[in-house]
């Protein structure tokens, strides 16, 4: 059974030493980042990173993101960085951004799931940064959740799921962004977004002329299809209960449709604050104000978990526009609903 360290107000020096010892001995630590919580291990220790796959029940073909505290670590772990890649590093690191780069052999193949590339991320969260810097080694960390479940954005949501699978869980409060980092791979000098996040296509196009969004961000990959990012084809973010995403241009029609869908059903609705009075259910979860995409992104995963705990037979979710971080919000919701979308 693991321990919980409360670092919501400050990092405790003695406990930090314990965290470093656990990581040096090949153990697992759950820690906050600005996006979501991560479940981390020493990225240079093959056995330690294998434990992450076990703890999450993660398919072994889905590579881990490697977290660093400075640029020197990036150059130490990767090679052949192009001009475009360097521009992206300079513009978006530290921050909620992961860049797929060619890896050096010191990164064990269990971390990269046998690929010759590795996802590199430099978190801006103070706790994450301090741990990596003090360890002096990169930390491999996927999102802290059992594979296929919504990512953890606070310790309360994930402690029953993970506390008996790791040595330490660090409570840093609610994560700022609530959605995982933007994952980008540069192909023929063009950044391709493999997973949208807070750093949007528009943000990237301020740094380089053109960016693209991979088609599998919104389309369900066909069985056995070759995808750019293994995470695209795995079941993801899903509550156990069936979900439907509703996203009509006409919001009045949307409310009517939702009320029809939930009539005589034990349904719960994840919807906008302003819509609560118009939706006929007492199982309403407020995901945020309709125009506040940052608030919505922060609440997505905890709302999905709340809905799942309400024991209903159906979860209906209101969608957002696909601009800026809205693209990332819709990507997560569409997958939570297993591509069942009414629009
Ligand atoms: O915000 C985040 O990125 C969080 C925090 C903890 O840093 N981490 C996270 O990791 O979301 P994870 O493992 O849940 O998602 C990593 C995604 C997966 O979809 C994986 O397939 C993709 O990144 N990925 C990792 N390495 C890759 C590679 N070499 N090539 C293509 N995709 C890769
Ligand atoms: Mg994940």
Write a brief structural summary.
With 343 residues, the protein is an alpha/beta fold. The chain is 31% helix and 21% strand. The strands form 2 sheets. Strands 1, 2, 3, 4, 5, 6, 7, 8, 9, 10, 11 and 12 form a 12-stranded mixed sheet that branches. It has a 5-stranded parallel sheet with strand order 15-14-16-13-17, with helices on both faces.
Defining key terms:
DHBP synthase; binds magnesium ion; binds threonylcarbamoyladenylate; globular; alpha/beta; 343 residues; five-stranded parallel sheet; 21% strand; twelve-stranded mixed sheet; 11 helices; Rossmann fold
Layout: helices, strands, pairs:
Layout: E1 3-6, H1 13-24, E2 29-31, E3 38-42, H2 46-56, E4 65-67, H3 71-77, E5 78-79, H4 83-92, E6 97-103, H5 109-112, E7 117-121, H6 126-135, E8 139-140, H7 155-162, E9 168-171, E10 182-187, E11 190-195, H8 201-205, E12 212-213, E13 243-246, H9 251-262, E14 267-272, E15 284-288, H10 293-308, E16 314-318, H11 326-336, E17 341-342
Parallel strand pairs: 1-9, 2-9, 4-7, 6-10, 11-12, 13-16, 13-17, 14-15, 14-16
Antiparallel strand pairs: 2-3, 3-8, 4-8, 5-6, 6-7, 10-11
Helix pairs in contact: 10-11
This protein binds threonylcarbamoyladenylate and magnesium ion.
């Amino acid at each position: 059974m693991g321990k919980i360290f409360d670092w919501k107000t400050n990092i405790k020096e003695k406990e930090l030493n314990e965290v470093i010892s656990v990581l040096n001995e090949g153990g697992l630590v759950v820690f906050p980042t600005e996006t979501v919580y991560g479940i981390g291990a020493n990225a240079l220790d093959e056995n330690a990173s294998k434990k992450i796959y076990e703890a999450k029940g993660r398919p072994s073909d889905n590579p881990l993101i490697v977290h660093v505290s400075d640029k020197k670590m990036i150059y130490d772990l990767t090679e052949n960085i192009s001009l475009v890649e360097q521009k992206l590093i300079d513009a978006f690191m530290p921050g909620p951004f992961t860049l797929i780069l060619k890896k050096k052999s010191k990164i064990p193949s269990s971390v990269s799931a046998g690929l010759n590339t590795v996802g590199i991320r430099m978190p801006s969260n103070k706790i994450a940064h301090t741990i990596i810097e003090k360890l002096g080694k990169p930390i491999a960390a996927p999102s802290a959740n059992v594979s296929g479940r919504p990512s953890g954005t606070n310790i309360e949501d994930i402690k029953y799921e993970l506390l008996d699978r790791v040595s330490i869980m660090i409570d840093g409060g609610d994560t700022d962004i609530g959605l995982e980092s933007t994952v980008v791979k540069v192909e023929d000098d063009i950044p391709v977004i493999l997973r949208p996040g807070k750093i949007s296509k528009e943000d990237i196009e301020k740094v380089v002329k053109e960016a693209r969004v991979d088609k599998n961000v919104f389309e369900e990959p066909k069985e056995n299809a070759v995808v750019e990012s293994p995470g695209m084809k795995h079941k993801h973010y899903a509550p156990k209960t069936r979900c439907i995403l509703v996203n009509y241009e006409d919001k009045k029609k949307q409310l009517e449709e939702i009320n029809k869908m939930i009539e005589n059903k034990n349904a719960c609705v994840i919807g906008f604050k302003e819509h609560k009075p118009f939706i006929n259910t007492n199982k309403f979860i407020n995901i945020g104000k309709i125009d506040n995409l940052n608030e919505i992104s922060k609440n997505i995963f905890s709302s999905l978990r709340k809905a799942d705990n309400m024991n209903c037979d159906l979860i209906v979710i209101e969608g957002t526009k696909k601009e800026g971080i809205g693209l990332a919000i819709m990507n997560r919701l569409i997958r939570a609903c297993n591509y069942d979308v009414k629009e």
